[in-house]
UniProtKB/TrEMBL annotation:
InterPro entries: ACT-like_dom_sf, ACT_dom, Chor_mutase/pphenate_deHydtase, Chorismate_II_sf, CM_dom_sf, CM_II_prokaryot, G/b/e-P-prot_chorismate_mutase, Preph_deHydtase. It comes from Halorhodospira neutriphila. Catalyzes the Claisen rearrangement of chorismate to prephenate and the decarboxylation/dehydration of prephenate to phenylpyruvate. It is found in: Cytoplasm. Residues 2-94 form the Chorismate mutase domain. The lineage of its organism: Bacteria, Pseudomonadati, Pseudomonadota, Gammaproteobacteria, Chromatiales. It catalyses: prephenate + H(+) = 3-phenylpyruvate + CO2 + H2O; chorismate = prephenate. Residues 94-269 form the Prephenate dehydratase domain. This is Bifunctional chorismate mutase/prephenate dehydratase.
Amino acid sequence: MAGAHDDLTALRQHIDSLDDQILDLVNERARLAEGVARAKAQRVQAAEVYRPEREAEVLRRLTERNDGPLSAEQVTVLFREIMSACRALQQPLTVAFLGPRGTFTEEAASKHFGHGTGTAPLATIGAVFREVESGAAHYGVVPVENSSEGVVSHTLDRFLDSELAIVGEVELRIHHALAMQAERFTAVERVYSHQQGLSQCRAWLETHLPNAERLPVASTAEAAQRAAADPAAAAIASEAAAGLYGVPIRQARIEDRHGNTTRFLVLGYRSPAPSGRDKTSLVVSSANRTGLLFQLLEPLAANGIDMTRIESRPSPQAGIWEYVFFIDVLGHHRDPVLAEALEQVRERASLFRILGSYPRAI
């Protein structure tokens, strides 16, 4: 027994020693970050402090050389927080997101920027755009598509009358929980959630709460707030939202598809430089004619460009049954091959705008 105790003591002492070294190294990194801020003090702006391409390169390098036992995801989370804290020493940033507190969008903002960044919850996607456009927030985070339910149309539509660029993307695995005050499912008369939350848990609800009324609200966080005040109600929300609003979780991970993922966009004013693993988003349109879509897309295929997504939306300026197309392709618009392909698309389109080139989600 004494030998085992001695071994445990030695291990803990070694851990303490490593913790001291880690603390010293993190503070040294922070001092270097302060030095960077002083070196560019005359021109420091949010776009100088937050460099998506640089952060993506650092995280990719670290995960590639990681030998474990920490997973790549754990390494990414750890170093995002270190970068977030060091970034805050250079200039505090404010990130607007689709609120209220406890939404998946807040979780996505924290995943991307870390907890050293200030956040501002707003009631609508349009309000997030306006907050960044006005300069009240440096960046914004909004949802754009879900793997189960498809595109968030309001986000796409808002790009048509905004000068903002896409400067990053976040992919977040969505896990829904059933939170309620009651201890038995039979006591539940109504279930609150965002419409997508209700849709993503449809089969589970039909099996376990077939007689409960399903009531859509603005967000899963609002659903948790309502369930906190209504003993006959349940909420489909994140575990974070349930904890924030004090509603016990009665069943975790009730989503019908366990690969359920939502993609979020980071909004700003300037596309970052190439990171080596990028994506470009654009919106194009032209007068309706035979073979229109083929003509717009043909340069991408001819140049070997990988298109990852296309969505059509009614054009707000053109006549009935005329559309604009939102397209995502792999690569940065400065890459020579992609630049040539995009120029050919531009020549064929009446509307052509690059919404942004940015590092792909890590």
